[in-house]
Amino acid sequence: MLFAIKKNIDNLKKHFHFWQGQAICKPINGWGGNGIIKLESERDLDLIYPYIVNQASPQLYLERIIENDFTDYRVDIVDDQFIACYGRKAAEGSWKTNITSGGNVIQREAPPEVIELALKAARITGLEIAGVDIIYDIEHQKYVVLEVNGIPAFATPEQEKMGINFNAKKIQCIVELIDRKTRKQSHRSKNTSTNSNVASDINYTDFA
After folding, report:
1. Each residue of 25-53: pLDDT tens digit?
2. The pLDDT of residue 62 is above 90
3. Alpha-carbon distance 72 to 162, whole Å?
4. pTM to 2 decimals?
């Protein structure tokens, strides 16, 4: 992955050559597959070059194209716990698995290595609630993380009818996470208040 900003445009072109002149271009703050385009030649890179160099801050990033079967795993994580997994499949003739881009939700069991990879990704990003998108890299014969979402969706009523039922477990884990953090914060506040009182007593004694 490489940020597309004007300060590293030369490095960007080097990576583009290394990736055989193909890459996926994504907006940093996009969602649902919006704004994602596939660059399939140097001409495509030249076409977006003016947009890249005119940005005041990073707006795009590029990643290599990964040979896959146009399906992915969406793994839900809450408080370092595996909640559920389902899959998404791109529409015929498309390479985007995002639902808003025509992809379809499918039932999918996550192998242990997919779950562990998702947990690791959530830990590295520091997200306590995360939706980790993972695909299988056919060329390198391994699972890879595409992205980590900080606001993963709940299952819709239609998806629940398909047997994708994880909302109750997810809500319960979120509630437990909030309760634990609230108790921890309350305990800290109490200790701070107690320490302040002790410090006041000591100061009073010293002045006496």
Report:
1. 877 766 666 778 888 887 887 787 777 66
2. no
3. 17
4. 0.78
Q: Are strands 129-137 and 81-89 parallel, antiparallel or unpaired?
A: unpaired
> Is residue 141 over pLDDT 80?
yes
3-state per-residue secondary structure call for the chain:
CEEECHHHHHHHHHHHHHCCCCEEEEECCCCCCCCCEEECCHHHHHHHHHHHHCCCCCCEEEECCCCCCCEEEEEEEECCEEEEEEEEECCCCCCCCCHHHCCEEEECCCCHHHHHHHHHHHHHHCCCEEEEEEEEECCCCEEEEEEEECCCCCCCHHHHHCCCCCHHHHHHHHHHHHHHHHHHHHHHHHHHHHHHHHHHHHHHHHHC
